[in-house]
């Protein structure tokens, strides 16, 4: 049942300091998830379908991966509801010269099976077989929790990143960045919509540029907040990925990333918010130790509000991490 | 002496309609130019060097290239001055199933040899051997002409593309677009600066998005103005490529593209203008025929001035093309 | 001990008809082989090393792979001599919609461990543990056989592909093709030489162009002859890959591919032959059935000699295949 994906990390997967981009890892995680969930959803006779990414739960980057190491990505289906599949993915880095292996990520992804005949139709998911009885009940709880959270995060579509002339260092305007990307065939499934992993890779790229502009050092992804994918992005769209810093602690930066899709050629559809998430970055010294980061200076009322919200998320995660100091699976 | 490069065009080289991006072709042209000029500049004993792109003369895209065709790019050194090399590059498309071959581009590039020990030092170029005596004199004229033109095009660094809220269709603000790109290892020569071809490919990508946003149809590159490369872009820079429409004729659009480099990590160097050029795009019907384009509505004084300048360039090229109606090589 | 590599096949991995390029598969095979052999050679304390590809045994492409399918590549060490490792690689294609799995390739690769401190020094290989006693003896026979064959194939360096003006259809000159590639960072190992898989992918690309030019239909790789890698190709080299048709049977074409490396910047080293091999291609109808191919017309004495040699290889393989008509693993 498990699915495994392995690949050597190359120069193009990493930044100038040799640390593999968080976005490269997120893209591999999503590929492993898409394979196992598409396989599962087609395991019974009936209409053929493709699994589309609906949500990624919050994930931490536990240790850095470097060029030349082998990434091992393993995926397993851990729960199925009537219309969705939960996939658990683990990422290990292996140094094939020394033999050292490290856990770098644990991620949870939710997929929804879309009919190949009509990609707007959601099909039913064959039930998974659980090895322990409690697994189904635990999975149902996770399913309900994420459903609730998805409801709450309806994005304010009007809110976009606005450039400012001659911004001061350490302000939000100084480091904010946007990237446009014309969706090409390699970004897409066979059925003409963008792989969730491609979107996440671009999101991490923008977040990394914001972080590098802010602190002008070697920066790496520390964690990504839950990402909800509100709508499919189709081939031929232009997507705009915008990032702005929302909060800084002593040694971390939180960056909000917004993804908007613009069906350039198709006049009938308006630009829409496709996804958004918060990325946390840290700054590393040449020896790989975390460095203090310059404090963000929020200027407008909106920026101050977002700073406080970011602080709230930061303190909540800190408390949660301390509460979890017991041994875990 | 000649250098030849051939490659099958893949889905990622083309837009959704199957037409190969002008930027893909520009990138191959530059790769062929870089190989032949680097080889020539190292053909004598002495300090080792790498040839850096300094300028590309105006080039037309004479016929579209499609996925599955083979692009043949051939380069030849046509002139050398003390510190620069002129390379003439021809591009043919070959349909390997029907055997049809078409000339798609003729381009002229200028390279400068930079010392491998110190990339800020320009070395001397070994003289090329001419087969006809007049060639040297003709080359010297082209050399002087481009030198003069380079002098004249000193870029106004303050001039950047500013977004506007809720722009009206057909205005400059409506279609203007920016792209940020973090320079990665594959974008660079072995010596840590960006290949000229990579920059040109990104410039064409932005111009294409501007054109598609403006006319919402299948669009292709028709020509590129002379591009001057004012300064090297180093590994680790963030480059911002911005495009705005300057002029429309009945069936063509002119887009100005600006490239700014930001040495994010290196605090000592300010953001600088690295290159800029005008791209001309046409809109094609499903049968590949040119379509009328919506007329651009310039709003501000600057936009009106740029529109008139664009019109001047358009009329000048039109006159030149009609004057060249005599048989050509 | 086994190593597994999986990946979804994308549009860029395939030709216009949707068949995955043989070169894409060869590149994955080599990546799996490089991982497992580098890991094995570093499994004991001692000098760190990287495994460099020395030879690939003849391999057949048993069934075509398509876009959207998942390729599963598994590698296992089957023999070790004092200075080399034999790796057996199997490739399966999985259609995740229907669940169908097919064996597409079985390949045998030989690696040699090079010291990280001095890539010209070959290290010793830790012995592998065999599960059956006969395995060691069988492996030693394969090792001796390939060693003998490598000795025999000393390439004639003077023999290169020369273009001819206005060649007639079906001649060798008509379809012969060359491709020039500037080795970039992504083509290389961390230690600055080209991955064997990258070279094989380029070789297959040239062979495919030759085959398509000759028969002007959808063509696919049927098999690759043993490939010997005579010497490392270093970062910064320009490699020329040339292909020419040597022989046609009723339904297959044999193409010889030569790889020459040119250390452009480094004047002290001459251009050298890095590898060469014979690729066999077949032509497929739209329904995927093999089509007759136009007969090759050898013109010069050399071409006629190569045609006869190709015929010899073809008849030998045919006899071998008929002799193997007994059930196989």
From TrEMBL, chains A, B, C:
It comes from the Eukaryota. The active site is at residues 15, 204. CDD domains: BFIT_BACH. Keywords: Cytoplasm, Hydrolase, Lipid metabolism, Repeat, Serine esterase. InterPro entries: Cytosol_ACT, HOTDOG_ACOT, HotDog_dom_sf, Thioestr_dom. One of its GO terms (biological process) is fatty acid catabolic process. Its EC number is 3.1.2.2. Residues 302-312 have a biased composition (Basic and acidic residues). Residues 300-329 are annotated as: Disordered. Residues 1-117, 173-287 form the HotDog ACOT-type domain. It is found in: Cytoplasm. GO terms for molecular function: carboxylic ester hydrolase activity; long-chain fatty acyl-CoA hydrolase activity. SUPFAM superfamilies: Thioesterase/thiol ester dehydrase-isomerase. PANTHER family: ACYL COENZYME A THIOESTER HYDROLASE (PTHR11049), CYTOSOLIC ACYL COENZYME A THIOESTER HYDROLASE (PTHR11049:SF24). This is palmitoyl-CoA hydrolase. It comes from Propithecus coquereli (Coquerel's sifaka).
């Amino acid at each position: 049942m498990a699915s495994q994906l392995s690949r050597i990390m190359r120069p193009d997967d990493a930044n100038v300091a040799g640390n593999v981009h968080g976005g490269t890892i997120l893209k591999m995680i999503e590929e492993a998830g898409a394979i196992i969930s598409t396989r599962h959803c087609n395991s019974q006779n009936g209409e053929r379908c493709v699994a589309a990414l609906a949500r990624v739960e919050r994930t931490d980057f536990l240790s850095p991966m470097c060029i030349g190491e082998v990434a091992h990505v393993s995926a397993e289906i851990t729960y199925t509801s009537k219309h969705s599949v939960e996939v658990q993915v683990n990422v290990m880095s292996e140094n094939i010269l020394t033999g050292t292996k490290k856990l770098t990520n644990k991620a949870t992804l939710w997929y929804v099976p879309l009919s190949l005949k009509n990609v707007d139709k959601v099909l039913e998911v064959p039930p998974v077989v659980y090895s322990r009885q409690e697994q189904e009940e635990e999975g149902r709880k996770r399913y309900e929790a994420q459903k609730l959270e998805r409801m709450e995060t309806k994005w304010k579509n009007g809110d976009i990143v606005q450039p400012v002339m001659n911004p001061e260092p350490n302000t939000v305007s100084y480091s904010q960045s946007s990237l446009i990307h014309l969706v090409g065939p390699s970004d897409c499934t066979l059925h003409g919509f963008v792989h969730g992993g491609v979107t996440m890779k671009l999101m991490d790229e923008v977040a990394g540029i914001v972080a590098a502009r802010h602190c002008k050092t070697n920066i790496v992804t520390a964690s990504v907040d839950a990402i909800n994918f509100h709508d499919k992005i189709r081939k031929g769209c232009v997507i705009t990925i915008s990032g702005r810093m929302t909060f800084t602690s002593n040694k971390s930066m939180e960056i909000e990333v917004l993804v908007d899709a613009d069906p350039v050629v198709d006049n009938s559809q308006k630009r829409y918010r496709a996804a958004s998430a918060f990325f946390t970055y840290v700054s590393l010294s040449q020896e790989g130790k975390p460095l203090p980061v310059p404090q963000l200076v929020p200027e407008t009322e909106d920026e101050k509000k977002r700073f406080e919200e970011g602080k709230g998320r930061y303190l909540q995660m800190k408390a949660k991490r301390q509460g979890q100091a017991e041994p875990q699976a």
